[in-house]
Amino acid sequence: MERRALKPAVAAGTLGPDTPYFDNTVATKAEMAARWPAPAGRTWLARYFAPAAA
After folding, report:
1. Residue 24 near residue 45 (C-beta atoms within 8 A)
2. What is the DSSP letter of 4?
3. What is the 3-state secondary structure (H, E, C) of 18-54?
4. Per-residue pLDDT at 54 exceeds 70
5. Band of pLDDT at residue 3, cut at 50, 70 and 90
């Protein structure tokens, strides 16, 4: 999915915080092993999801 399509996909409900996302911002092999893929809500995409209600 192209980067410009991510925000509309979140708005449409196609991409959610639990959707596996291959975050290519990982910097080390250890990070890749530990969190690649990661839930979208734990990546830089978290800014697009509404905060959970308390």
Report:
1. no
2. G
3. CCEECCCCCCCHHHHHHHCCEEHHHCHHHHHCCCCCC
4. no
5. confident
> What six digits make up the tokens of 18?
């639990």
Copy the structure tokens of residue 2. Answer: 């192209």
Q: Could you give the CA distance from residue 48 to residue 37 in angstroms, rounded to a whole number?
A: 18
Is residue 52 a contact partner of residue 13, using CB atoms and an 8 Å limit?
no
pLDDT in tens, 26-52: 889 998 888 889 999 999 999 999 775
Output b/e per residue, 14-39; b: 16+ Cβ within 10 A.
Answer: ebebeeebebeebeeeeeeeeebebb
Rounded to whole angstroms, how far apart are CA atoms 5 and 34? 26
Q: What gap in Å lies between CA 30 and CA 19, rounded to an integer?
A: 21
